[in-house]
């Protein structure tokens, strides 16, 4: 569902964007417009839709074909699009807000929205932590400075009237979260998806707060090269419609999500925990969503992640119109 790019990757991505950018899309052998998707090894809808064929189905009516590139880790996926070798991918709303303020290469065309139960802060048994305030003087694992975990930690402490500077943040590689949590290398983690599920499933762990308990605007978002979007508006609308159908498929059968996690290596125990998370919806990038992302941008400014709120409205395309 929701992988995030580390903040340190921003410079390299923007450098690539400045050097060129995605083409307006190659043509397939029969002359149709090609939509090249750099998909991620996680169960967001731009990945799961690969199995349902809904993008191909919707695209056929408007002369579009789909090419799947991946699965790619987030940094490689975005490098692939900015290098002109793919047209679309997925990220988190926080990273998109960062992109919107630093590059005009991207446009968001669909929001993947969920309650926030799949994100949160969890303490391990050996920490003795039972509340957010107990984290004072403790080590909390995050994915990257300014990333999802850092955002959740800052937001939780702000809303609780606590001082986040009294917490020691420890940046962890995605693959080391579970080990660091279970071994006591950190006292708690602020994370999402598989890492959160693994922590929640650890014996004696304590869920301190989830994104559903906060005024969080941290969701998944699907983005496309601006060049491709402007050249192929009818085809992009078809791709959006395909994602809407995919969300309806997952709502009717949530195993669409859990089966994909298992394909990417999740254990039965982890999958059982992931199954407790809510099923996302696909929403258009309308005025309400733009307003929410502007609020997220202001939170990022308040937390020192950004200097100013970017012009979100200029970086989205509303496919509900």
From TrEMBL:
UniProtKB keywords: Signal
Domain SsuA/THI5-like: 50-254
Keyword Signal: yes
UniProt xrefs under InterPro entries: SsuA/THI5 (IPR015168)
Keyword Signal tagged: yes
Annotated signal sequence range: 1-29
A Pfam match: NMT1
PANTHER family associated with the record: ALIPHATIC SULFONATES-BINDING PROTEIN-RELATED (PTHR30024)
The protein's name: NrtA/SsuA/CpmA family ABC transporter substrate-binding protein
């Amino acid at each position: 569902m929701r992988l995030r790019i580390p903040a340190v990757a921003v410079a390299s991505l923007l450098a690539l964007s400045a050097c060129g950018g995605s083409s307006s899309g190659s043509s397939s052998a029969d002359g149709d417009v090609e939509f090249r998707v750099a998909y991620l090894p996680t169960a967001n809808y731009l990945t799961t839709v690969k199995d349902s064929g809904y993008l191909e189905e919707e695209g056929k009516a408007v002369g579009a074909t789909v090419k799947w590139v991946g699965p790619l880790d987030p940094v490689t996926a975005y490098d692939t699009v900015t290098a002109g070798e793919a047209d679309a991918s997925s990220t988190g709303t926080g990273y998109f807000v960062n992109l919107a303020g630093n590059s005009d290469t991207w446009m968001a065309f669909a929001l993947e929205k969920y309650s926030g139960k799949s994100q949160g802060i969890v303490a391990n048994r050996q920490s003795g932590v039972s509340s957010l305030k107990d984290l004072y003087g403790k080590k909390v694992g995050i994915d990257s400075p300014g990333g999802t975990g850092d955002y959740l930690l800052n937001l939780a402490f702000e809303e609780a009237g606590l001082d986040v500077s009294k917490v020691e943040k420890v940046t962890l590689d995605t693959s080391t979260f579970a080990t660091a949590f279970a071994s006591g290398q950190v006292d708690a983690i602020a994370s999402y998806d598989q890492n959160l599920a693994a922590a929640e499933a650890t014996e004696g762990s304590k869920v301190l707060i989830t994104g559903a308990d906060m005024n969080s605007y941290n969701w998944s978002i699907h983005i496309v090269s601006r060049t491709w979007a402007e050249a192929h508006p009818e085809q992009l609308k078809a791709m959006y419609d395909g994602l809407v159908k995919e969300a309806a498929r997952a709502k009717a059968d949530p195993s669409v999500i859990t089966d994909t996690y298992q394909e990417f290596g999740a254990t039965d125990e982890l999958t059982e925990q992931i199954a407790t998370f809510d099923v996302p919806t696909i929403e258009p990038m309308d005025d309400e969503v733009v307003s929410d992302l502007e609020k997220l941008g202001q939170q990022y400014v308040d937390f020192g992640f950004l200097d100013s709120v970017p012009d979100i409205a200029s970086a989205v395309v509303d496919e509900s119109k």
